[in-house]
Amino acid sequence: MSRMGLFGTVLGRKIGTLWPAVIVTLLSVAATTNLVHAFEFVNQPLSMDLVEGRSAILQCSVDDDTNVEYRWTLEGSDIADDDRRSVTNGDLTITGVDRVLDSGEFRCVATNTVTGESKTSDPAELNIIWIQPSAKVTLKSPSSLDQIEEGSRVTLNCKVEGNPAPDIVWFRDKARLAPDENVELTRSRLRLRSARVEDSGVYSCRGQNRAGEAWSSGGNLTLTILDADFPINEEAPEDVLGVVGQSAEFHCAFQGNPDPVIDWYFRWSEEGTNVVHMANGTSTKIFRNGTLVINNITLMDEGTYICIGRNDVGEADVEAQLVVAKVEDLPVLGSRIVPDGEPLSVNCTYPYGTTGGVPAPQLGWLDQLGRPLSSNPQDRVHTEGGTLLVFRRLQARDNGNYTCKASNIAGEKTRQLGVVVATVPEFTTRPMDTAAKEMSDAWLHCQADGNPKPRITWQGDGNSQLQDRRFLTLDNGTLHIRNLMMSDEGGYVCQVSTIAGTDAAKVTLRVIPVLKFSPAPNSKPLELGEDSKIICRASASTPPIIRWFKLPSPSTPWDAHINETDGKLSFHPAKKSDSGRYMCVATAGDEVINTTVTIDVFVRPRFTIVPSNATGYEGYSLTIDCQATGDPFPRISWMGISPAKVESPHMVKLDNGSLFIKQVKASDAGNYQCLAGSDAGLSSAEITLIVRKGTPPGSTPFTPQLMHRTIAIAVGCAVAYIILVVGLMWWCRQRRRKQRRLMKEEALAAEAAAALNPGAGAVPGPDGEVAKLNGSLPHPPSANSYRDEEPKVAGMSNGDMAMGPLVKAAAGGRRGSYDKLQFPRHDLQTLVVIGHGVYGEVFLARAAGITEGVEATTVMVKALQTKSESQQLDFRREMDMLCKLSHDNVVKLLGMCREAEPQLMITEYLEWGDLKQYLQATRGENGTANVPPPLTLAQKLDVINQVALGMEHVASHRFIHGDLAARNCLLSPAMEVKVSLMAVSRDLYRAEYHEYRQKLVPVRWMPPEAVFEDELSTKSDVWAYGVFVWEVFAQGHLPHESLDNDALMRALLDGGLTLETPVGTPDEVEILMHRCWAESAKDRYSFSDIALALQNILPDSSV
Fold first, then answer.
1. pLDDT tens digits along 222-260
2. Contact 101/77 with Cβ under 8 angstroms?
3. Which helix (H) or strand (E) holds 1008?
4. Domain match, 792 and 816 both
5. Does 786 map to a domain?
């Protein structure tokens, strides 16, 4: 093969190898070309009108701004970003447009930095609206004022520039001019066709466009057109700067033919609407030559004084100002605390834009001794410009008060500046290591000297904060630790500080332990026949000796089955005779302590008949036996294991403990527990109940004939019951009509007796009392009265609140008091249901004639709808209590309805409802516009004082409230507060109650002993009062809001649960709250103590 042939072959092979790569490259270029497409403007800048000084934004954007950069040009030149013009996301922002700098065409240039493509927007211009600051009046013709005479043709020009051209308004002597037969107004010119004497005056003009106004205040023109006979001023009064108490003179003279008469006028303000004619008086004198003298100048004399000369030809006037000299108060300078050696500069001047007086007062500084300070800048302490006081480097001798003085002819004003040169504090009494006994008090003394008085604080070793209320830092710096605990032992740091520096000293506190039980033994039950022990331990600085004794004969030796070793008393085994009181005595040196416990020997409950699984048949009765014994004798109860339930009256526990089911249902199937419990313990047995259909073995099945007979008997009984009910309703209606007729006859007889004997009093006796309560005439029944409504709650479940809102310490009632408060049910009109409480519904109603002299009164009504005997008793006790209480801050019992079910209790109601809702509304969190203002401090103190007085009255009658809170206090528009008994624990305030031991209890308002030991007392009401005070100052927030009920119960059981003091609570009120929350009930205040403490806190003036 030839060389050329070989070359062709190789080239063909190369091209064949490279050809796919070439194709791929060409396709990539084509794809890239398609992806980078030309962009278009979406927003282009638009021309706009705006006032000079305003801001403008010119918009610019493209449809795809990927890799696109923007720049702007003005008249072809690039615009650089500065403090006035900047580009953000393509938009040009101009802050404070300028008619010179921003004149021309603006264009936006968008450039793709990848492809290099660039596009320029359409031009936009800013039409800047402006007006020059002031105008000027010039004489156009004739060329000189001297050439103007009566009859001359005069042309004035108002020179003012702006865009658009300003509209011109002309004034003569501040009165606006309008065109007439002699005055011609054309654009900026005013032409007088024929000058007259009355055309004389000061000509001014005003230019106005959208940018604002421009006045010729500094460029007015005065025209004087003279007439030989017209009054001409020869001597014009001059402005006077007067001083209070001195005199001022104004000279004025006119000539004319005939001689002008001179009158003086006074104008209070520049508007000229209140001008008064002046005459001779005690402080003013007008002389024959026209001179006005004002004696004993006051500030009321300041204004414009006008001298007018009049004759038959006309009148002319001149005026002058009387300005009364004055000097204003200087701004407050306060004090400056600066470390020693630091510089200090203080400026004493009036606020910007004010002169501080007329004439402008002279300002200067005086040193501590009242001497003027030097103005030499070389001096360490000097003044600059008369107003700036400069300390180049403060020294201790610079302490004191410096005086800034402003003075003019009116007098002087001064203001003091306190300069405190702060020094590093030095200890005068260093804290010393201290030892003190446990449970006593300790004082750690710490004092320091410095300027200003050093701040003394204490910290635990390691900068730990002393937050326990037992730690109190006294005013003299001493740390007082009350009721020392072993954990208080350790290091403490006293820190003294001023603005100039800080020093600290460390001290060690050693706590000497005292003899004490650790812990004290508790009373406990022992099980008969079982080995048991009780342990008594104590601790002290030296190991104590511990002994046990049985009371009342401590010298009697122990029985053989009892062994005492190192504080441990063992019973092997426990016998019934071991019951009694035992004393543990601990001795350490000279210290002796003892404690007494009670031991009861019991027999734990055990079943004598253990319940067994049972099978029941639908429709038939069933008895499940369960009996137990023990000492004390156990109480037996039954409970279902979910989903099974022990339902009443379907299931009944018999006296012997067995469970009797009247008619077994399919839903009764499940697991049940028989519980035998006493103080000795609890035993339980579980059984399973199986329910089947059919007939129990040995029973006779129901036949169709027996079924028909049963149905017939049931229908007959139902018909007889209906006839009985209808008959009773008819009888009751006839009886009620007869009672109404008798009441009406008695009322008419009473009226007739009163008419015959006007001096006689009310009709005596119970009927008279009832008539007075119910009104003079019976009212017709209301269509929606409570009588016509069906009770909404038939009974109460196990979740009811067990304690009544108010429980009397000693029960008892008087039926006579109730009889006087009987109120006709038909005169009660239901308004709205507030909620549901322990007894049933609580609702608002209108009671006709319940208040003497008032047609109808809004009242609160509580309905007794529960079948529980204990709750019915509490309801009666509550009514009895309200019968006996009479106080302005406790709701009054107005009436009751007891003649039919449900019984109703009628009490006062205040217009604004319960206090809780008002406090919550003041927080403004409900989204409404009408938010009541929060209570002021004085109002809060008055509210808690009223409740304290009401509760003092309740406690003095030996009653216990048991549910005191803001939700149970009513509020009137006059800020009158009354303790109430609403206790709507079921719905409205259900979240504020917790179900505990099958009762609804307000645990957030209760002390531990009331929750866990059921010890309700006046002192538990005091605890609740402390929480109520917290609610008032916290605007109705829920106490311990961050804790759920279970966590709250655990914290309450552990102790130490406290509420954080709300912002704005006075210290005295904080102390009061914590006294109400004392751990021991005997350490808490009584309500009398609270009322007395609040009298010392309340402001003098009434709220």
1. 888 877 688 888 899 999 999 999 999 999 999 888 999
2. no
3. helix 1008-1012
4. yes
5. yes
**Mean pLDDT confidence for 350-358:** 87
Query: Any long-range contacts for 382-387 (C-beta under 8 Å, 24+ apart)?
Result: 386/362, 387/347, 387/348, 387/349, 387/363
Answer yes or no: do 938 and 1086 share one domain: yes
What is the residue range of 799's domain? 763-909
Residue 448 forms beta bridges with which residues? Answer: 427
The answer on whether 672 is annotated among ligand-binding residues is: no
485 and 565 housed in the same domain: no
Domain final residue pick, 77, 108, 129: 129
| Total length of the chain | 1103
Structural contact between residues 189 and 142, judged by C-beta atoms closer than 8 angstroms: no
Let me know if residue 736 belongs to a domain. no
Q: Which of 673, 593, 572 is nearest to 628 (CA)?
A: 673
Question: Based on the domain organization, do 898 and 956 belong to the same domain?
Answer: no
The CATH number given to whatever domain includes residue 521 is 2.60.40.10
Is 862 marked as binding a ligand? yes
Q: What is the distance between the alpha carbons of residues 496 and 455, in angstroms, rounded to a whole number?
A: 6
Number of domain units in the chain: 10
Q: Is 584 exposed, middle or buried (0-12, 13-18, 19+ CB in 10 A)?
A: buried
The secondary structure of 808-876 as a DSSP string is ESS----HHHHHHTB--GGGEEEEEEEEE-SSSEEEEEEEETSSTT-SEEEEEEEEE----HHHHHHHH
Is 1068 annotated to bind ligand?
no
Q: Do residues 109 and 75 lie in contact, with contact meaning Cβ atoms separated by under 8 Å?
A: no
Q: Packing angle between helix 1087-1097 and helix 937-956, nearest 10 degrees?
A: 160
Asked whether the beta carbons of 360 and 327 are under 8 A apart, the reply is no
Q: Do 957 and 1097 share a structural domain? A: yes
Residue 913's pLDDT is 87
For tokens 């793709």, the residue is 112
Whether residue 933 has pLDDT greater than 90? no
Domain containing residue 1000: CATH number? 1.10.510.10
Tokens of 21: 């790569």
- Residue 968 labeled ligand binder: yes
Contact 1019, 857 (CB under 8 A): no
Report pLDDT digits (tens) over 163-204: 999 999 999 988 899 999 999 999 899 999 988 878 888 999
Helix ranges, 629-756 (H): 704-756
Is the separation of the CB atoms in 637 and 645 below 8 Å? Answer: no
CB-based burial label for 314 (10 Å; 0-12, 13-18, 19+): middle
What type of residue is 676? A
Side chain identity at residue 414, one-letter code? T
b/e per residue, 956-976, with b = 16+ CB within 10 A? eeebbbbbbbbbbbbbeeeeb
- Residues 499 and 626 both lie in one domain: no
Residues 986 and 1083 in one domain: yes
Q: Which residues are within 8 A (CB) of 991 and not within 5 positions of it... i.e. 6 or more apart?
A: 1038
Query: Of 79, 110, 129, which residue sits at a domain end?
Result: 129
Is 967 among the annotated ligand-binding positions? Answer: yes
Q: Establish if 103 belongs to a structural domain.
A: yes
Catalytic positions, written as ranges: 963
Helix H or strand E segment including 338: strand 335-339
Any domain includes 733: no
pLDDT score at 739: 67
CB-based contact 444:434 (threshold 8 Å): yes
Q: Is 162 annotated as a binding residue?
A: no
CA distances from 771 to 777, 821, 919 (A): 8, 11, 40
Q: Are 523 and 597 in contact (CB under 8 A)?
A: yes
Pair (137, 209) in one structural domain: yes
Cα–Cα distance for residue pair 348/531, rounded to 1 Å:
91
CATH number for the domain including 788? 3.30.200.20
Q: Confirm if 418 and 332 have CB atoms less than 8 A apart.
A: no
